[in-house]
Amino acid sequence: MRVGTGSGISVCEDRWIPRPTIFKVWPPRKLVGDVLVAALLEEPGRWNEVLIRSNLVDGEADFITSIPLSFSSWKDSFLWHYDKKGIFSVESAYRVALAAQIEDRASSSWGPSSWQKRIWNFKLPSKVRVFYWKACKGILPTKLLLSKRGIVNDGSCPFCEKRPESVDHAIWGCGRVISQWKACHFFSRLQNVCFFDRRRLC
After folding, report:
1. pLDDT at 192
2. Which residues contact 137 (CB under 8 A, 6 or more apart)?
3. Pick from 25, 146, 136: which is nearest to 82 by CA?
């Protein structure tokens, strides 16, 4: 849902967080009962950051406060997240279904990813935890993801231009990135715990 006045959106029950594929508030949370998003607004067009950060974990609060608001009293409305204009189409639904099928196959190979939920308990800056969570979910704005959503035409890596810029390639696989990793004293230990195929490195 797109936030307008927030009077028609439940904080805990409705899908309004711009975070595929859940779109809901991530537990743990201190909010109880059917609290409306309107209660999180300090005034029209402005989030109550103090209230949000005191009731939600840091990563969740960052997501919420990054949602743009209108100073006009627009009504809450539904939108389709997987289209730039928010309009549902069979073509976009097909792309989402295909991506979900690929993800299901990958998850069945690697096992459950419940460990990702512990990210929010790490003693790290919130922006690091958010980045880590996005990387684990494969939703960092890489060129490959942007090309799949029709935002850019070319999804190849801008540095090596040899492979698509996926999350794995951007963090581990590109030759320019690997040269930086090798400068770290703990790179040899890192190689032993990273799930990447060394034969695919540029």
Report:
1. 58
2. 20, 116
3. 146
For 86, other C-beta atoms within 10 Å of its C-beta total 12
**DSSP class of residue 177?**
H
Residue 164 CB contacts under 8 Å (≥ 6 apart), including other chains: 143, 144, 147, 155, 156, 157
CB of 135 closer than 8 Å to CB of 167:
yes
Reference 162, options 174, 151, 176; nearest CA is 174
Query: Tens digit of pLDDT for each residue in 43-86?
Result: 888 999 998 888 877 677 888 888 888 887 788 999 998 888 88
Domain residue extents for the chain: 91-200
**Residue 130 host element (H or E):** helix 126-137
How far is the C-alpha of 137 from the C-alpha of 113, rounded, in Å? 10
List CB contacts of 49: < 8 A, sequence separation 6 or more: 42, 61, 65
For 113, other C-beta atoms within 10 Å of its C-beta total 11
**Are 76 and 3 in contact, with CB atoms under 8 Å apart?**
yes
The conformation of residue 33, written as its DSSP 8-state character, comes to S
DSSP letter (8 states) at residue 40: G
